[in-house]
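Feature request disguised as a bug: please show the residue count (79) next to DUF2164 domain-containing protein in the output. Example input:
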Amino acid sequence: MKKMEIELRKEIREVLIEDLKRYFANERDEDLSNLGAELLLDYILINIGPYIYNKGIEDSYNYMSERVEDLLSLEKRFR
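Example output, currently without the count:
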């Protein structure tokens, strides 16, 4: 089974790479190279990303289901 791939625009990847580098510098007092940050980001996207993505899908489904129930409550009743 092929792993789900989450593709990001180049600009977004660059921002996330810089965020990872900044996190390591501020929180762990470590320098993370660009390559290290890219590899970490890829690991997160491949191994953790699908769980986060699926949680977003589940939350969206639950939200939309509630809205459909709200919509059905507006039905006109026959006499």
